């Protein structure tokens, strides 16, 4: 009796040549001729092809498209975070849901230190020197801070938070972490000097020279950083957000910066993306902004493809999948 082939639908790119590259990478890891890989250039084609698919790979999916799947056993997202595509149907489905793991961990952590250095080394003033050609050595020097010896508060101790802490130790910083729930072993997390439970957030903020947000966006974390949190921070402190824009109350951020409640901020993520040209954020001088690039790099899709291929190989061998989404939390 002939074994039926496994149908895998992939909607990760609108460019056929990139799909060819993805197949090349997948087949270099998974050697199985009983798999049909189906290219879906858009959600319309995905809706047609997902009906009898066994596995689906995408960066996002709509409730309507997902509802058409009749025999799907595994849905894989090619991104670390899936808050942009999370909905009730995914919470209650029996379909196994996974996400890409660690493909943005190092680039995001590196970006955090690029932002920390920008703020602490007063590179905004350095840019002004180039524009005005006015020699500003001592004005700039008077405001420069050394990272060594500073306390860095890291909100979130997942893979990105751990990598940030590792780099912080290379700079000689004291590291404090905030975790949703902590156990005894969490007090010995690598490269963290102390771990705080969520209930002690304000205590962490009060002693941190800079605070980095590195947590997923969920119903629990959305809006968690508002006016009370800014009041708890040092007036000399910086905030860096490489998590999600929805975690920070934008109006509270603007007030904190304009009133000098905190010294400054650097943000890579926004409530609305793309950020509208008329956003008031563009007018704030002590705010450094990047357009959601902290985790991006040219080989991102290749890395996401290899991650999926390795998962697929294990899946076909009957091994437990990694990167499984906890549906009760959405990450």
What does this entry look like structurally?
The structure is a single chain. By secondary structure, the protein is α/β, with parallel strands linked by helices. It folds into two domains: 6-103 and 298-316, 3-Layer(aba) Sandwich (Rossmann fold); 105-289, Rossmann fold (3-Layer(aba) Sandwich). It has helices at residues 16-29, 43-49, 63-67, 88-92, 105-120, 123-132, 137-141, 159-170, 201-207, 227-232, 250-258, 300-316; strands at 6-11, 35-39, 55-58, 74-77, 96-99, 151-155, 174-179, 194-197, 210-213, 238-241, 264-267, 287-289. The strands form two sheets. The chain has a seven-stranded parallel sheet with strand order 8-7-6-9-10-11-12, sandwiched between helices. A five-stranded parallel sheet has the order 2-1-3-4-5, sandwiched between helices. Helix 11 (250-258) links the parallel strand 10 (238-241) and strand 11. Helix 1 (16-29) crosses helix 12 (300-316) and helix 5 crosses helix 8 (159-170). The model has no long low-confidence stretch (mean pLDDT 95).
Strand content: 15-25%
What CATH architecture of the largest domain would you give? 3-Layer(aba) Sandwich
Order of helices and strands: EHEHEHEHEHHHEHEEHEHEHEEH
CATH topology label of the largest domain: Rossmann fold
Integer count of domains: 2
Helix residue percentage: 25-40%
- Strand arrangement in the largest pleated sheet: 8-7-6-9-10-11-12
Shape: elongated
Structural class: alpha/beta
Radius of gyration: 22 Å
Mean pLDDT rating: 95
Sheet with most strands: 7 strands, parallel
The CATH homologous superfamily name of the largest domain equals: NAD(P)-binding Rossmann-like Domain
Number of helices: 12
Uncertain runs: none
CATH class annotation of the largest domain: Alpha Beta
The beta-strand count equals 12
Distance between the first and last residues' Cα: 40 Å
């Amino acid at each position: 009796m002939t074994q039926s082939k496994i149908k895998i639908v992939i909607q990760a790119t609108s460019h056929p040549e990139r799909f060819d590259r993805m197949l090349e990478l997948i087949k270099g890891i998974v050697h199985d001729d009983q798999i049909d890989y189906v290219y879906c250039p858009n959600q319309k084609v995905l809706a047609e092809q997902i009906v009898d698919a066994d596995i689906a790979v995408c960066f996002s999916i709509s409730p309507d498209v997902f509802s058409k799947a009749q025999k799907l056993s595994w849905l894989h997202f090619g991104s670390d975070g899936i808050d942009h595509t999370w909905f009730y149907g995914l919470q209650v489905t029996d379909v196994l849901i996974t996400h890409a793991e660690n493909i943005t961990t190092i680039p995001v952590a590196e970006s955090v230190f690029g932002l920390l250095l920008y703020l602490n080394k007063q590179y905004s003033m350095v840019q002004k020197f180039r524009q005005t050609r006015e020699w500003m050595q001592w004005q700039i020097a008077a405001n420069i801070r050394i990272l060594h010896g500073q306390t860095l508060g890291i909100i979130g101790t997942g893979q990105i938070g751990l990598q940030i802490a590792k780099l912080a130790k290379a700079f000689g910083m004291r590291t404090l972490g905030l975790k949703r729930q902590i156990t005894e072993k969490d007090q010995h997390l690598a490269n963290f000097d102390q771990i705080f439970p969520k209930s002690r957030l304000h205590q962490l903020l009060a002693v941190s020279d800079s605070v980095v947000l590195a947590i997923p966006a969920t119903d629990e974390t959305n809006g968690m950083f508002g006016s009370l949190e800014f009041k708890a921070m040092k007036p000399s402190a910086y905030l860096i957000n490489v998590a999600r824009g929805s975690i920070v109350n934008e109006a509270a951020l603007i007030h904190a910066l304009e009133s000098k409640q905190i010294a400054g901020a650097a943000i890579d993520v926004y409530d609305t993306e793309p950020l509208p040209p008329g956003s008031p954020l563009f007018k704030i001088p002590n705010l450094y902004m990047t357009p959601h690039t902290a985790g991006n790099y040219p080989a991102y899709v290749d890395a996401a493809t290899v991650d999926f291929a390795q998962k697929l190989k294990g899946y076909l061998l009957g091994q437990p999948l990694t990167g499984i989404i906890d549906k009760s939390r959405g990450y």
